[in-house]
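Annotated sample (chain length 34).
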Amino acid sequence: MLVSLHVKNFAIIDEVEVYFKDHLNILTGETGAG
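Output written by the structure step:
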């Protein structure tokens, strides 16, 4: 199971850390992709 995601210096993202919860998680961004 994916618990967290850390992204740094990727495309338009400087740095972000996301913690996931049980059930459904949805990611989207400024570009509308995701």
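Annotation: The first strand starts at residue 4 and ends at 10.
Annotation: Strands lie at 4-10, 13-19.
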